[in-house]
Amino acid sequence: MQPQIKDLYQKFKESSGISTDSRTIKKDNIFFCLSGDNFDGNDYAENALNKGASLCVIDNPEFAKKSEKFLLVEDSLDTLQELAKYHRDKLNIPIVGITGSNGKTTTKNLLEVALSVKYNVYATEGNFNNHIGVPLSILKINNSHEIGIIEMGASSVGEIAELCQIAKPSCGLITNISKAHIKGFKSFEGVVRGKSELFDYLNKNNGQIIINNYDSTLVNFIKRFDNPILIEGDKSNIDVKISKSKDGLKLFEPNIFFMVKNLNSGLYEEKKSKLFGRYNFENILMAISAAKFFKIDELESADKICIWNMPSNNRSQVIKVAGSNIILDAYNANPQSMKNAIESVQNFSDNDKVFILGDMNELGDISKHEHSEVGKLTSKLKLSECFFVGDKMEDAYKMNKNSRWFKTYDEMHDSIAKLRFQNVDVLVKGSRSLRLERIQTTLKRILT
């Protein structure tokens, strides 16, 4: 531990919290001057003081004499992380760590809702899940909180291990493992190794591991650990299953119907969530299972989950327009989440389908193959229209000649704006950089 941390921690306890953004400084915040590739955070220190910061943590010696409220450290980010570790050690509460390729934020939100039946919960806000977001999240936990949920994201091997050293989770789950961030992880095996660092930490520190045994990759982890909790089957701590219709087909679109066993009566009770997409059933199971580990009955957590609405954050968001539906899933995209969204929208309703699909980023050497696979998949479907947008999606277009391809968002927008649709389900899916959510205003106009 840095020698300054103990003194800094006392100042933290007397402050109104931590800030890393001078634009949103609150009175008596401690401002950490974090630098990026194109900016020096130290340049904003004086502005932060003028806005009411009680202290600025700087790492540029040239600024040290400008104010007695500047604390010079060797590295501001390292100091932020060390402060968070020190604070975590003072917290006598369990923390659930959540990582995975898809569904981290949704599972975090569901678990927060489920645990709120019994506890005062702190959960990662937004997706503050990286080397800066995790320490900031830890430092927001106070003595009133009884349990914490920390989301952990990563794009390379070793990052989850570092985040575990900060958050020190006592329980954890990996939502799934798929071909996401391949560029950073170098290979799918790298993704597996990187995500499993959460389980490795829990295993070494006597934490509770919860395994999504619906995921074919995670199934291989079961034998590595002594007493993992599975979300389905004999080693599960809950009895929850997907509902089935009279003809044996699963009823999961547009909402998820599932059955929860009442341990008092021995009978199953049907529940209906407001979530869209079959893939979200696994997220529901993980939340109910983790809540059960913390002594919350599955019926109680299921009831809470079923009144929860997905926030308007471009994740599996359903927007109804006249007789049509816009399924906005434009927060991010990787091969598995793209396939999940396509399959779910196919089963959403009897409406005709229109797909607007954008690039899947950070796939490295497998990018061409995976975009081609999207083209092959869509070529087999009966679609009114299929629009691909972005440089990488040209490979999808080459596999589906019934589609249209646009290099840029603006080109695609101008083409779509001239069209009219009625009674269709429109899937909008792509990586964050494309900001495909911008198309919704135009879609609302041409669907009415």
Describe this structure in words.
There is one protein chain. 33% of the residues lie in helices and 18% in strands. The termini are far apart. Helix 2 (45-50) links the parallel strand 2 and strand 3 (55-58). The protein folds into 3 domains: 5-74, Udp-n-acetylmuramoylalanyl-d-glutamate--2,6- Diaminopimelate Ligase, Chain: A, domain 1; 91-306, Mur-like, catalytic domain (UDP-N-acetylmuramoyl-L-alanine:D-glutamate ligase), CATH 3.40.1190.10; 317-446, Protein-Tyrosine Phosphatase, Chain A (Alpha-Beta Complex). The strands form 4 sheets. A 6-stranded parallel beta sheet has the order 6-7-5-8-9-10, with helices on both faces. By secondary structure, the protein is α/β, with parallel strands linked by helices. The chain has 16 helices and 19 strands.
Major beta sheet summary: 6 strands, parallel
Number of domains: 3
* Quaternary structure: single chain
Number of helices: 16
Q: Give the overall silhouette.
A: globular
CATH architecture of the largest domain: 3-Layer(aba) Sandwich
CATH topology of the largest domain: UDP-N-acetylmuramoyl-L-alanine:D-glutamate ligase
